[in-house]
Amino acid sequence: MAYDEGLAHRLGESLGDLPDLSTRKMFGSLVFMWRGNMLVGALGSDLIARVGPEAQADALAQPGARVFDFTGRPMNGWVVVDGEAVAEDEALEDWIARCREFVEALPPK
Is the model's pTM score more than 0.85? Predict the structure, then answer.
């Protein structure tokens, strides 16, 4: 599955000022790494969001969010958000902020 280049561009624009930001292609998606830790990504037209285990239940209660089970095994602390739910910049920024809050607390790799 190819990733949505428009979503990837929007993510890059929003995250562009973060130090130690990089991208990596994985499993047909494009993920953004911050200080060596996965932060967010584009999988098809959907957003991959790393919110952390403690915030996962709240994240799953948000519109368009579902468990991230790309490999058939749910990933704890991750959700996938339907592309339509992040079509507006404000919604995308909200998800990015959720992810940054969790990943910022992780040690750099």
Answer: yes
